[in-house]
Amino acid sequence: MLNTDPLLPRPTLLNASLLARTLDGLRPQVRSSADMWRLLTDQYVVDLDAVAALLPDEEPDTVWLAARD
Question: Is there a contact between 63 and 49 (Cβ–Cβ < 8 Å)?
Answer without folding.
Answer: no
